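Journal club side-thread
Mid-discussion, someone asked how the predicted structure for our own chain would compare to the paper's figures. Pasting it here so we can look after the session.
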Amino acid sequence: MLRRLMAIFVTVAIILGAGWFVMRRSDIGYDRLESMYANTDSWFMPMGGDMRVHYRDLGPRNAPVLVLVHGFSASLHTWEPWVQGLRKDYRVVSLDLPGHGLSRCLDVSETGIPQFVDTIDHVTRELGIAHFTLVGSSMGGHTAWNYALAHPDRLDGLVLVDASGWPKSEEEADASPLVFKLLANPLARSVMKDLDMTGMIRGGLEDSFVDQALVTEEMVQRYAALGRAPCHREAILNLMTGRNGRTEANAGALAAITVPTLILQGEQDNLVPASHAEKFNEAIAGSTLKLYANVGHLPQEEATDQSLADMRYFLETQVYAPAEPPEEDEAGVN
């Protein structure tokens, strides 16, 4: 009987091992990825050695500056609808965070919010940008509010789009998409690290949108391919451990943010509950909250027109509003 059980165990192990080898996927080189996903607006900023950060810098050089930061496992492509709607009137800088998109990893063991904050600071200073409005989606929002706390003197405004950072309740954690639950498990992460994740990526994207028609095959393949850039999978796994200086949001810390702040949130977000946006709104004095019905985790892609209109109104009325003309005295003299 024991011999029989051992034979079954060995057979199952062989089948699983064979399946792992079949599903295993190698890295895709940066040269190939750049030929697929860079364009004529792409630039690469040296960060020491062979490390480079991919960014795009569009719009009038003398216009107010907007810096757009994507979320977990995403890339600057998430902002393309907004970039096209803003570049006429603003200088718009979008970038791939280290270990994402077409950016190389920096110190992969340090991948996390503090490294992202430093990267934004370095890139903007190298571009000669003294002040700007910082816009962050999801993990990029987590990075953005941390940047606002670390460098308050450099920001004109702050925009948080379905921003992460608040601790999740047990109920909220249970409701997270399957891919995030699996990646939260150390054993599952080690097994999945080199596997074809296309199916899970598709499922994760479908969880991010209410309108499933927006999850195109091109989008799925882009996420999957960029996730296979050298060292990116290790960087993503490091992010999942959350051990590299990630701070959790709390009302006391966020009260220090005094720049004009806009908070945008999809009400049907399966990753970051809408209640978290309300917490940001309560914690940051004078902030403005916009909730979008029947919209998921990425309002900039799913509710482009409305979110862009709200962004423009915020910039025009609260951040870069024209100066009030001086009042005349009774004699009509200024």
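Post-session note: The chain has one domain: 30-319.
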